[in-house]
């Protein structure tokens, strides 16, 4: 059977579709005219060319080697319209849903990727068709590689150009296209060519003498003196133009052509993508309906009569899908025959410990395990004394990286496959995952998320599962004593508030509090809400200068929250089987990539306050022979800011081990370094970290409780010392506006659709997010990588010590006292060596009998 590869010039088709189709929005209000045109083109390509393999190549926004060679390359082109830029991620999502391979590479144009793919295809005996009207690509045409260019006004019709066709329409054979372009130039790419040499002259020269090299070798034979002079005087320009138009044909490609197989019919995921964009007419034109039955994807799914059926199929197909529900487990090896095991999730570790043949699938290295959310299963396995083996897939992690976040399995499945969730058939979820999983690699590739998924997020999953299974010991008695003491303190504070207010009232009632503040005391009112005057934290902070009551109210709330959130709750979360707390870590809890946790939420312990720090005393080693080790990155956000901005002064300050906060304070307050006070340093520290998080003068003024103009002076003082940071942030925002996203050091993307919003508040919030993400997101990626490296080291060297907690930039370990010093050295070495930055990553580590002791 012949192999036919269709390569689509994706970027060119995006522009063509955008300008050819009038504005069109989808059900979510997004502009999708280019998406519609692109979808129409893909469907048309399937219909007309019947490819066995397909690839869509895209340009990337980064400068290429051509820009380095010639800074004015494409310089005349205007920035693409915002409505076009916003559709590029949607188009890549569409291509992934069609299960078509995406190809893009930083520093290279789509032309170079198309050239390389064409030559790969020739070697592997493919018939290749390039869908593009770009004349640069004519140079790639060979007996096995043809061009399909759209016919103007032809309503989707194509003209196929072979070697003779290129000669007919362009005047020269494919092998001389680059020579002709080097002479005549290319206005669309701002390639100069030889001044005064047009298309007709270039064709005549090429057809008479041959290549550019041969033309210059024969230049003395040219009878027209003016033409000869132009050629001689501009030989360097011609040779530079030749280098610019020459397509690279041997760039590294991350996949093989055999992986680019496409089916004869539109896959289910493609159908649902079109329906999701609201392309009813496009679907109807191909005999499909956008109004599919509520659960069409469940058709043909029949529950297996015995679990043996699923096990046999899993062993044959080398894969099994396992979905954990609160009330049971769904298993499937294919899209038609699932099995349901009724078992409350609390009994899962016990079920696994005494499980039957199906549990052996999990420990079989030859079986791929697939799930929407794999970690609960992996954690339960560790609790049962087992460990998952072989490859596994977690679609929840993948969905987060492709900006397809879904908090629930049902939401994810219906969003991808459409229809309504079949409430009475939860086992169908396993079959749905079988349908969805194959498209996820393409979806990840479309946003360059595959590497991050495979090397960071997936390897971290079992690390977190081990930590959840391990848990952390709590000093219950000390916790109860602290809760009782704080309760008494809250009671005393409540009476102090009543005395200041001159009346008793319910401090927990916003309505009564508003009446006291704004009517009885006559304080200047803050912002209004639908239910009346706001008494939120921000309002109370703004009122502290007017009266002593708001400050006491803030103190009351802080104590009350600490008591109700942690002191009263932690004892109830202790697992009576091992007397430890087992928090749940979430890899997709924050858009920056930071981990979050729940039951309890340890990320929100107020460790910046004295009382919050004391709470760490309650987290203890499991017995008298063990200790707690704390390892914390020092100023990682500012070190990353120095690395990313390459500001010379900031880099020097870190190399010289200068206290950044004191140095900034000295500049802001215009005092010698030795005269910087503790309060000055505190304010400078707030400013420094605030700038890394995109703080505005108004935001900083509220944090420091100073006038906005004074806050602006602080920020200006920072930029005066570190001007490179300002330049970096400006470039970062410019790139975010152009690309529609920002990235961390390890390639984690965060979309920034609102950065072009007309509403100022929405736009500025998006700008702060864009500034914050590369710094905070890179810090999150770095500690995740450190956790993976440390975990591998602990198990490879058979340590008894274990990693038990992660809180922001800090890792906690528990182990025998005899291992602590060696463990400390190993952890510091691993954490500081995760990535090579322009400044050293430093880690502060210590150990003790509890978390507080280890942190001091």
Q: Give the biggest beta sheet.
A: 6 strands, mixed
Query: Helix- and strand-based class?
Result: alpha/beta
Secondary structure tally, helices? 38
Mean pLDDT: 87
Residues in β-strands, percent: 5-15%
Describe the fold and architecture.
Strand 15 (574-575) and strand 16 form a beta hairpin. Residues 290-294 have low confidence and may be disordered. The protein is 49% helix and 12% strand. The radius of gyration is 32 Å and the shape is globular. The longest helix is centred in the last third of the chain and has 37 residues, at 760-796. The strands form 7 sheets. A 6-stranded mixed β-sheet has the order 3-2-1-4-5-6, sandwiched between helices. A 5-stranded mixed β-sheet has the order 9-8-7-10-11. It has 856 residues and is of the alpha/beta class. Helix 8 (177-184) packs across helix 12 (235-245), helix 18 (375-383) runs parallel beside helix 23 and helix 29 packs across helix 36. It starts with a strand and ends with a helix. The chain is built from 38 helices and 25 strands.
Name a few traits of the molecule.
single chain, alpha/beta, six-stranded mixed beta sheet, five-stranded mixed beta sheet, 25 strands
What's the short story on this structure?
This protein has 856 residues and is α/β, with parallel strands linked by helices. The chain contains 38 helices and 25 strands.
SSE map:
Blueprint: E1 4-9, H1 10-20, H2 33-49, E2 53-57, H3 65-69, H4 82-85, H5 88-97, E3 101-103, H6 110-123, E4 127-131, E5 145-150, E6 158-161, H7 163-170, H8 177-184, H9 199-209, H10 212-217, H11 225-233, H12 235-245, H13 268-276, H14 280-284, H15 307-317, E7 319-325, E8 328-332, E9 338-342, H16 348-353, H17 357-362, E10 368-371, H18 375-383, E11 392-394, H19 395-401, H20 409-417, H21 428-436, H22 440-446, H23 450-470, E12 472-474, H24 476-501, H25 510-520, E13 528-529, E14 532-533, H26 537-543, H27 549-567, E15 574-575, E16 580-581, E17 584-586, E18 596-598, H28 610-615, E19 619-620, E20 626-633, H29 636-645, H30 648-655, H31 660-669, H32 678-692, H33 697-704, H34 708-721, H35 723-739, E21 741-743, E22 749-751, H36 760-796, E23 802-807, E24 810-816, H37 820-832, E25 843-848, H38 851-854
Helix pairs in contact: 1-2, 2-5, 5-13, 5-22, 8-9, 8-12, 18-23, 20-21, 23-36, 24-27, 26-27, 29-35, 29-36, 31-32, 31-34, 32-34, 33-34, 34-35, 36-37
């Amino acid at each position: 059977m012949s192999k036919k590869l269709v390569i689509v010039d994706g970027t060119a088709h995006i522009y063509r579709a955008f300008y050819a189709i009038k504005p069109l929005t989808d059900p979510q209000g997004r502009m999708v005219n280019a998406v519609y045109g692109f979808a129409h083109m893909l469907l048309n390509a399937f219909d007309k060319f019947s490819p066995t393999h397909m690839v869509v190549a895209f340009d990337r926004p980064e400068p290429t080697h051509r820009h380095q060679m010639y800074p004015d390359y494409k310089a005349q082109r205007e920035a693409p319209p915002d409505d076009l830029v916003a559709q590029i991620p949607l188009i890549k999502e569409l291509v992934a849903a069609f299960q078509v391979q995406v190809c893009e590479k930083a520093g290279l144009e789509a032309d170079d990727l198309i050239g390389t793919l064409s030559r790969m295809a020739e070697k592997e005996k493919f018939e290749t068709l390039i869908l593009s009207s770009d004349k640069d690509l004519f140079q790639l045409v060979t007996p096995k590689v043809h061009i399909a260019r759209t016919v103007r006004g032809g309503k989707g019709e194509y003209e196929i150009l072979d070697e003779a066709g290129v000669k007919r329409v362009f005047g020269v054979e494919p092998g001389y296209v680059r020579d002709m372009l080097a002479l005549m130039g290319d206005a669309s790419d701002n390639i100069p060519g030889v001044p005064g040499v047009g298309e007709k002259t270039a064709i005549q020269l090429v057809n008479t003498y041959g290549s550019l090299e041969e033309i210059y070798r024969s230049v003395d034979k040219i009878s027209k003196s003016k033409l000869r002079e132009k050629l001689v005087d501009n030989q360097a320009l011609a040779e530079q133009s030749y280098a610019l138009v020459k397509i690279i044909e041997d760039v590294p490609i991350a996949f093989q052509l055999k992986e680019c197989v496409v089916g004869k019919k539109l896959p289910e995921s493609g159908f649902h993508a079109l329906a999701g964009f609201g392309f009813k007419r496009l679907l109807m034109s191909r005999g499909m309906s956008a109004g599919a039955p509520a659960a069409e994807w469940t058709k043909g799914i029949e529950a297996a009569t015995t679990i043996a059926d699923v096990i046999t199929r899993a062993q044959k197909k080398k894969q099994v899908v396992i979905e954990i529900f609160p009330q049971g487990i769904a298993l499937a090896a294919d899209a038609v025959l699932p099995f349901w095991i009724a078992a409350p999730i609390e009994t899962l570790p016990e079920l696994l410990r005494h499980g039957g043949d199906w549990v052996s699938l999990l420990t079989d290295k030859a079986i791929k395990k697939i799930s929407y959310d794999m970690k609960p299963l992996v954690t339960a396995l560790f609790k049962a004394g087992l460990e998952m083996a072989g490859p596994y897939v977690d679609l929840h992690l993948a969905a987060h990286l492709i900006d397809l976040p879904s908090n629930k399995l049902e939401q994810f499945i219906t969003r991808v496959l459409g229809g309504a969730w079949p409430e009475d058939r939860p086992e169908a979820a396993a079959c749905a995952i079988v349908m969805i999983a194959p498209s996820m690699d393409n979806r990840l590739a479309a946003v360059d998320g595959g590497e991050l998924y495979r090397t960071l997020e997936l390897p971290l999953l079992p690390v977190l599962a081990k930590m959840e299974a391990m848990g952390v010991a709590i000093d219950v008695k000390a916790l109860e004593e602290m809760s009782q003491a704080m309760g008494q303190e809250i009671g005393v504070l409540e009476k102090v508030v009543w005395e200041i207010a001159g009346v008793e009232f319910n401090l927990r009632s916003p309505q009564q509090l508003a009446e006291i503040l704004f009517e009885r005391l006559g304080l200047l009112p803050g912002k209004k809400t639908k239910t009346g005057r706001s008494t939120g934290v921000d309002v109370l902070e703004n009122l502290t200068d007017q009266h002593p009551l708001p400050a006491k109210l803030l103190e009351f709330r802080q104590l009350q929250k600490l008591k109700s959130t942690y002191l009263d709750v932690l004892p109830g979360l202790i697992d009576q089987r091992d007397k430890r707390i087992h928090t749940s870590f979430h890899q997709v809890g924050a858009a920056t990539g930071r981990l979050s946790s729940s039951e309890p939420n340890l990320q929100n312990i107020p460790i910046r306050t004295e009382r919050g720090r004391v709470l760490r005393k309650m987290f203890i080693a499991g017995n008298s022979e063990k200790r707690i080790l704390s390892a914390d990155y020092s100023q990682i956000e500012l070190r990353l800011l120095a690395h990313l901005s390459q500001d010379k002064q900031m880099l020097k300050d870190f190399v010289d081990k200068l206290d950044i906060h004191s140095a900034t304070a000295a500049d802001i307050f215009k005092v010698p370094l030795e005269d910087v006070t503790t309060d000055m340093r505190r304010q400078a520290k707030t400013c420094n970290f605030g700038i890394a998080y995109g703080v505005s003068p108004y935001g900083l003024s509220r944090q420091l409780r100073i006038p906005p103009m004074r806050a602006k002076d602080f920020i200006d003082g920072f930029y005066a010392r570190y001007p490179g940071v300002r330049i970096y942030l400006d470039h970062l925002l410019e790139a975010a506006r152009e690309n529609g996203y920002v990235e961390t050091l390890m390639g984690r993307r965060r979309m920034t659709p609102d950065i072009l919003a007309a509403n100022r508040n929405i736009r500025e919030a998006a700008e702060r997010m864009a500034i914050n993400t590369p710094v905070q997101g890179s810090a999150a990626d770095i500690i995740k990588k450190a956790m993976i490296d440390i975990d591998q080291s602990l198990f490879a060297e058979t340590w008894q010590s274990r990693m038990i907690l992660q809180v922001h930039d800090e890792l906690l370990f528990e182990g025998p006292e005899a291992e602590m010093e060696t463990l400390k050295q190993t952890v510091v070495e691993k954490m500081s060596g995760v990535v090579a930055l322009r400044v050293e990553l430093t880690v502060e580590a210590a150990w003790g009998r509890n978390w507080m002791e280890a942190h001091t």
